[in-house]
Amino acid sequence: MPNEKPTKANSAAKNADDVDQKLFSITELANELDISTRTIRFYETKNLLSPQRVGGARVFQNRDRVRLLLILRGKRLGFSLKDISEYLALYDADQTHVSQIELLQSKVDDRLKKLEIQLHDLQTTIAELKKMRSLTTEALANKALANKALANKVIANKVLANK
Predict the structure, then answer these.
(1) Number of helices and strands (H, E) in the chain?
(2) What is the arithmetic mean of pLDDT over 69-82?
(3) How far is residue 158's CA from residue 39's CA, in Å, rounded to a whole number?
(4) Does residue 15 have a pLDDT over 80?
(5) Helix H or strand E segment including 52
(6) What CATH code would you report for 13-77?
(7) Sheet of 57-61, strand order
(8) More confident residue, 1 or 85
(9) Which of 81, 115, 127, 139 lies in the 20 to 30 Å Cα band around 48?
(10) Do residues 65 and 26 lie in contact, with contact meaning Cβ atoms separated by under 8 Å?
């Protein structure tokens, strides 16, 4: 076996093991994900992340990195920290991940319903604002015509008065 030639499969498995074993400092994670170290510490206080400690320093494994990516994606999609926490908790609790997927589907359905309502409300508001804008533009145009007519009348009266 020592003379065994490396294959693509062996190389891929080794790379996957290297990634799983890689440790990250809080600064490395923050820089990689373009977030602040304070954000990472905040998620730690909410028990969404639980890095190991080496001395006083936090040390994150790839698992923590993946959890952080899921947290950030969940927040970007508008899920609450409670929703994200429930989803992450099911990862370890259910090895088949069926419960986790069902929960995610339910949360996604709820989120879509809320966003569709918001979209409808926004479309209604935009239509009303466009109508209001049109009315104000028309009113200003009418005022401008009236002011022009009034100005012409004043000028005509001055011309007649000077005769």
Answers:
(1) 6, 3
(2) 95
(3) 73
(4) no
(5) strand 52-54
(6) 1.10.1660.10
(7) 23-24, 57-61, 52-54
(8) 85
(9) 115
(10) no
